[in-house]
Amino acid sequence: MARKFKRKECPMFTFMMQLNLKAKPFFERHAKALSWVFALFLLLSAIKTAPFLIGTSIQIVQRVYVELAPGGLVVQYYEDTEFKSLVRSRSERAVDKRYYVDRIARGVSTAHFGAVWEGYLVVPEDGEYGFFMQSMDGSRMYLNGELIVDHWESRNWAPGKHGRADLESGRQHIRIEHVVYEGPAAIRLRWVGPTIPPDTVLSVPHIVKE
């Protein structure tokens, strides 16, 4: 004669079923209110992250503009620090380079080289302009043949060097010299003026080849 087995109930399963039966009427009664709470949560999350998203979008747009806009300075790269052995010339649209992620040319070390940036600074209006140079290693900037920023003897990125000049609107000849004795290498030039916000990287459309 076959034995009959009595099914045993799982306490955890029973508890979950009871909890579900109790919670279901609550959710049904308050579905509309809960949907508004969820929508408010999403709105607050969007507001919290909006500044970051907007700032990132602006940076991307600015970067794309700098990369695609016409203009820039002609940069001659040398495999020595005396500017004798030219290896490559190319156009750069911003004086802001990190050579440890951007090689110069095949076979040329980014840990020992020289570079000369040359062209014209397009000054939007008459006034006093400030310049701030940072580089690894030495760098200096000339406007119309006059030394404005001298970072030549320093090999450290910080604190950088400042310079000022009273300029007339229009094109002013600019020359930047940069030498690297031992990598890593980088250079950045920022400026400020009557219509130029502080900490603006020198870039197109304010630098042109000719």
Low-confidence stretches: 58-69
Number of helices: 2
Percent range for β-strand residues = 35-45%
Number of domains: 2
Give a count of the beta strands, DSSP E runs of length 2 or more.
12
Cα gyration radius (Å): 31 Å
CATH topology label of the largest domain:
Jelly Rolls
Give the overall shape, derived from the CA principal axes: elongated
> Can you tell me the CATH architecture of the largest domain?
Sandwich
Helix content: 25-40%
Write the element-wise H/E pattern from the N-terminal end onward.
HHEEEEEEEEEEEE
Rounded average pLDDT: 81
Main CATH class of the largest domain: Mainly Beta
Description:
The chain is of the alpha+beta class and 210 residues long. It has two domains: 11-68; 73-208, Jelly Rolls (Sandwich). 27% of the residues lie in helices and 40% in strands. The chain has two helices and twelve strands, in the order ααββββββββββββ. The protein has helices at 11-29, 31-68; strands at 73-78, 86-92, 96-98, 113-123, 127-136, 138-143, 146-151, 161-167, 170-180, 186-193, 196-201, 207-208. The strands form two sheets. Strands 1, 2, 4, 6, 7, 9 and 12 form a seven-stranded antiparallel β-sheet that branches.
